[in-house]
Amino acid sequence: MTGLLLSAVALALFVLPTVGLWMLGRRLRLPAGELAMGATAVWVTSVWAVVILGAVLSQRAQPVLFPETSPCHNAGTPVARYFPPDAFCLHDDGELRTVNGPTGRILFWLACGTAVGIPVAARFTLRRHR
Q1: How far apart are CA 59 and CA 82, in angstroms?
Q2: 33-41, long-range: CB within 8 Å, 24+ apart, which pairs?
Q3: Residue 97: what are its φ and ψ, rounded to 5°?
């Protein structure tokens, strides 16, 4: 089940925006060099922002270099959830408390919306100008 979920997320975040942008550029008859540079720039900035932000949010409670700087130090065990990304502290009483708060979730979903919205907006713009 996890493999299927990861495949669906990879398809939604990497393949669909890239293919959509490439097909849109072909319909606009852009030169191949411009199309490759534009698709690469959009892909790197929007999709990788989602990946990096998700990795940071899910690993925030983990003690990396200095265990005493972890939010879960002397409070509980760090727990990570990868999609939607969030980090928790499992306290001794069994309660899971988030480390990121609502701001982290909002930033992640805004980045996802941007990564998916750019090719969709480009497609609607093309349709409107025809």
Answers
A1: 9
A2: none
A3: -120, 130
**d(C-alpha 62, C-alpha 59), whole Å:** 5
Look up residue 30 and give its DSSP letter: -
* CA-based nearest residue to 78, from 55, 59, 56: 59
Give the global pTM.
0.57
Question: Which residue is associated with the tokens 């949010």?
Answer: 57
DSSP code, position 98: E
CB neighbour list of residue 39: distance below 8 Å, 6 or more residues apart: 18, 21, 22, 25
DSSP codes of every residue in 99-113:
SSHHHHHHHHHHHHH
Three-state DSSP at 90 gives strand
* Torsion angles phi and psi, residue 61, rounded to 5: -90, -5
CB 15 within 8 A of CB 70: no
Tens of pLDDT, residue by residue over 77-117, are 887 787 888 888 888 887 887 888 788 888 888 888 877 77
CA distance 19 to 66: 42
